[in-house]
Amino acid sequence: MHPSSSRRFLFLVLLSARLAAPAAAADTGGDAAAMQALRRELAPPGWGPGGDHCAWRGVTCSPPAATGGAGAVTAIELPRRGLRGDFSAAGALPALSRLDLSANSLRGGVPGSLGSLRRLEFLDLSLNALSGPVPASLSGASSLRFLNLSNNALSGAIPGELGRLGKLQELQISGNNLTGGLPPWLASLPALRVLSAYENSLSGPIPPGLGLSSELQVLNLHSNALEGPIPGSLFQLGSLQVLILTLNRLNGSIPDAIGRCRGLSNVRIGDNRLSGAIPASIGDATSLTYFEANTNDLSGGIPTQFARCANLTLLNLAYNRLAGEVPDVLGELRNLQELIVSGNGLGGEFPRAVLRCRNLSKLDLSYNSFHGNLPEDICNNGSRMQFLFLDHNGFSGGIPPGIGGCTRLLALQLGSNNLGGQIPAEIGKVKSLQIALNLSFNHLVGTLPRELGRLDKLVTLDLSSNEISGQIPGDMRGMLSLIEVNLSNNRLSGTIPVFGPFQKSAASSFSGNAKLCGDPLDVDCGSIYGSNYGMDHRRISYRVALAVVGSCVLIFSLVSLVVALFMWRERQEKEAEVKKAEAGEVVVAAPEVVASTVFIESLQQAIDFQSCVKATYKDANELGNGAFSTSYKAVMPSGMVVCVKKLKSVDRTVTHQQTKMIRELERLAHINHKNLVRPIGYVIYDDCALLLHHHMPNGTLLQLIHNDCNADGEKQKPDWPRLLSIAIDVAEGLAFLHQVATIHLDICSGNIYLDAHYNALLGEVEISKLLDPSKGTASISAVAGSFGYIPPEYAYTMQVTVPGNVYSYGVVLLEILTSKLPVEEEFGEGVDLVKWVHTAPARGETPEQIMDPRLSTVSFAWRRQMLAVLKVAMLCTERAPAKRPRMKKVVEMLQEAKNS
Asked: Protein kinase domain: which residues (predicted)?
C-alpha cells in the first residue's frame, strides 16, 4: 500500500472510533431513559427510582464500555411478578436479546415497537391478557428464535410478515382467539422445531410440506377447526417426537410415513374424521408411548406391529370401525397400562393374552361383539387391574369365581351380556370396589350372595334386569358407601331391608319384582302374601282358644282397676306430647345416659344433654353425613346452639371402650390449635356416642363451594382470597396433626368447618384417635374415608398413612380450584376429579380450562395464584406416595402462592 494511502486509512479508522464513542454513550443514555419509563409503567418489585438500572432485579447488562459508560441492557426477565401496564418502552433497548414478561397481568396489545429490536432472540409474553392482533411489525426482530404469545386474548390472523423470521425455532401461539388458516410460510422456516397453536379457531389445512424444510419435533394443533389430511411431510425427515391433532376436522388416512419417526413418543389424533387402516409401519415408531386415535372412522384390524412398541403405555382406539380380534401379541407389551378399544366391531373370545401385561390397569372392551366365557384367571396373581369394562358384548357362561382375585379393582362393568349362573360369593373379596359394580341385563339366577355386604366402599350397584330370586339379604347393610342401587326387574321377594340407601332410592330401583314389598315401594307386604300370611305359625285349637279368652277376661277384670288409676296421668302425658309435636319438638323416650360431661366450665349450665339427644332424632336438624358420623344442629334451652356429632360407632368400638374414649376426648379438648375443631363435651347412652362441638354458623367448605349457602341456610358467595385462606388454614391444621403423630381418617370438604369469620377448622380429629387402626381399635374397613378423597394405594395397602392424608388434602384443593365434586358424571366412566385434572393435557385442555372460570377470570392476580395452587394440588395427588410433599412443605408453597 502507498504510504499516503496508509496514513489516510488510519485517519479514517481513528475518526470512526472518535465518532462512535459519543454514539455508544448516547445508546446507554437511551437505555436509562427506557428503563425509567418501564419502571414507571410496570413498577416491578426491586426497581427503585434511582441507582444503576443494571443492578435491578431481573435485568442483565453487557459489560461496561471501555470508555467507562454503563453497559447496554441485554435481558429483562420478570415472569410471575404481577406486572400490569405499558411495556412498549422495551422497544427502545437496541441491545435487548431476551424479554420474558410471562405470567403477569399485562393488558392491551403486543407493542409493535418490539419489532425494532434487531438483536432480540427470546420473547415470552405468554399467560397475560394481551388482546388485539399479532403485530406484523414483529417481523423486524429478525434474530428471533423463540416467540411465545400463548394464553392471551389475541385475535385475527397470523400475519404473513412473520415468515421473514428465518431463524425462528419455536413458535407458540396457543390459547388465543386466532382465526384464519395456518400460513404456508410455516413450511419454509428452516430452523422450526416447535409449533404450538392449539386452542384457537384456526381453519383450513395443515400446510403441505410442513416438516420438509426443518427438523420439526413438536406439532400441537389440537382444538381448532383444521381440515384436510395429515401431511405425510411431517414424518419424512423422521424428526417428529410429539404429534397432537385432537379435536379438529381432519380427514384422510394416517400416512404410512409415520413409521419413519423412530423417536415419535406421543401421537394423539382422536376426535377427527380420519379413515382407512392404521398403517403397519406404526411398529417402526419404536419409541411410541401414547397412541390415541379414538372417535374417528378408522377401519381394518388392530395392527400386530404395535407389539414392537415396547414402551407403549396407552393404546386408545375407541369408537372407530375396527374389526377382527385383539392380537395376541399385544400381550408382549409389558409397559401397557391402558387398552381401550370400546365402540368398535371387534369380536372373538376374550383376549386372554392381554392379561400377560402385568401393568395393565384399565381394560375396556365394551360395546363390541366379543363372545364366549370369561377366563377364570381374569385377575391373575399380581394383577394391577383397576378398571374392567366388558359390558355390551356377548359374553356367556358364568361370572368366574376368579373375579375375587381382582383385589385392586375400582370399577367392574359386565352389564348387557349373556352371562348366566349365580353371582359368585367371591365378589365380596373385591374390597377395593368403589366406583361401580354393574351386572345388569344378563341372565343371572339364584339368590343375592350375602358377601355383597362386604363391599363397604362401593357407591353404585346395578343388578337390574336379571332373574335373581329370593330375599335381599340383610347383610347388604354393610355397603356403607352405597349411593345408587338398582335391583329392578328380577324375581326378588320378601321385605326390602331397612337400610338408608335403599329407602332413599326411587321406587323404580326395586320395581319389576312381583313379590317384593316395603319402602321405597308403595307395596304393603300383607297385600302381597294375602290374609293367610303367617297363619301356619299361629294355628291353635278351639278349646285352647276358649281357655285363652276366659283367662283374658279374668285378667282384664283384675287389672282394670289398676289401669283406671293411671288413665288420667297417661292422658295428660299424651296431651303434652301432642303439643310438643305440634310445636316441632321431637318426642323421644329419655335414654339412659351412661356418661356425659362438658369440658368447658363456663358452658356447663348452658348445655342440656337431653336436648342434644333429641336433636339427633329429627332429620330437619341434620347438618351433614360423613364416613364416621352424622352431624346435627341442637338448640339448647339456654338459647345456645351446639353441633352434635353422632358416631356411627363401627363394630361398637367406641362405646365398648368408654374409658379410652373419655381420656382421648379430654386430651383433645385441650389441643391448642386454631384450625382444629375441639370437642366441648360428650354423651354416651345405650350403644350411641354423641360428641359436642361449637356450632359453625358458616357451615362446611362443601356447602360453601357447592351449595352457595351456610349451615343456617343463608346465601354466601365464595371468592378466591377467602378460598385460598381456607386452604391454608386446613393445611396448617393438618401439618400440626402430623407433627403430633396423628393421621386423620376422613379429610374431605364436608369435614372442614367455617366459623363466623370464615376461619377453617378441620373436624373429626377425635375420630382419628378413637378409631386408630394402628392401635387395634378399629378395622381398616372403618377408616377408608369418603369416596373420591381416598388415595389409590389404600385399595391394596389397607393402611392409612401420612402421604394418604396429603393426597386427600390435594383432592380438596382441586375441589376448591374447579368447584367440582370429587366424583361427577361429566368426568366419564371410571374417572374421578384427580384423574380428570391429571389427564387434562391428554385431552388438550389447559389449566385455565379446568379451573372455575367464575374465579379465574375475575382477576389475573387471582388466576396467577390459582395456577400456583394447582401445581401444589398436582403434587399432593401424585399417584406414587413417595412423590407427595409433606404438609409442612405444602403450607410453605401455599403461602408463597398467596404472596406472589
From this structure: 617-900
